[in-house]
Amino acid sequence: MTKSLPTFSSKKIWIADLLLLLVAVVWGTSYGVAKQALVFYPVLDFVALRFSITFLLLLPSLRQLAQPQGRAALRAGLPLGLILLAIFICETFGLAQTKASNAAFLISLFVVFTPFVEWLVMARRPSGSAFLMAFVSLFGTWLLTYGGSLALNLGDGLILAAALLRALMVCMTKRLTHNKSMSTLALTAVQSGVVGLGCFLIAALFMRNGLPPLPSASGFWICTLYLVLFCTIFAFFAQNYGVRQSDPTRVSLLMGSEPLFGALFAVFWLGEQLSFLSWVGGGLIVGATLWATLPRSIFFARLAK
C-alpha cells in the first residue's frame, strides 16, 4: 500500500504560497528600512512602538475573545508572542550592530534550522529533498549576500539566535494552531500585544531616564508605518495563515527567498550593484523556492500524458 501524498495543488495551498512569497518581498526590504528608523530611536523603544501601534490597529479583532475562536487565538498567541518578543529583541539589536546584508543572510539560516527543529518539536522527519533544498537555499543566500566570504561579530551572533528562534516560531505556530479553529487576526493581535508590552517593560526596567521623546522626523514615521502595516500586520497574518495551511519546512523555504527580494530592492531602489556570484546565489534561492512550491507529483503526471 503506497502512502498518499499531500495535495499541494489545492486552492488554499496556492493562496498560502503566494502570501508567503509576498511576506518574503516585504521582509526583504525591512532590514534597510528598520536600520534607517534606528538612527532616530533606541532599539527597545522602537520595537515597543512598532508593535504597540500594530496592536492598537488590530484591537477590534479582540472582540472575538468572547468566542471559542478568539479564546483559542489567545491560548496560542501568548506563548507565540513570547517567542516573537525574543526574536525581535535579538534581531533588532543585531541589526543595529551589523550590516543589513549580513542580517538578511543570517536570518535566512532559519531555512536550514527549521527541518531540524521540526524533527525535535513535532517528531516528524522531513523528506530528504526538503533538507537538500534547504541547504541549496542557504548556499544561494551565502553567495547572494556575501559573495562567498563570512565574518561574524556580536550583531551577527544575535541575528543567528533570531534565526534559530524563527525556526522554533514556525514549528510552534504549526503545533499550537494545527486543526484548531481560531481567528488569525486575533492571533496576530495577541502576539503583537505581547511583544509591545514586553519591550515596554524591559525598557522601563533597564532605562534609567525612561522612554525618550518620539522623533519628529517624517522619515522615521514613514519607516515605522511601513514596518507596521506591511512587515508586521500583513506579514504575520500571512505567516500564521500559511503555517496553518502547509508544513513548517515548506513555509521556511518559501520565506527563505527573502534575501533575494532584499537584493532586488537594493538594486532598483537604492542603486546598489550586485556581483555575478550574488546573482547566481539569487538564482539558487529562486530554484529552491520553486522546487518547494510546485506540486511535483501532479506536474510529472501531466507531463506523462
From TrEMBL:
Residues 15-145, 154-292 form the EamA domain. SUPFAM superfamilies: Multidrug resistance efflux transporter EmrE (SSF103481). It comes from Collimonas arenae. It is a multi-pass membrane protein. Its main location: membrane. This is Permease of the drug/metabolite transporter (DMT) superfamily. One of its GO terms (cellular component) is plasma membrane. It is found in: Cell membrane. Keywords: Cell membrane, Membrane, Transmembrane, Transmembrane helix. The keyword Ligase does not apply. The chain crosses the membrane at residues 12-33, 39-60, 72-96, 102-121, 150-172, 184-207, 219-239, 251-270, 276-294.
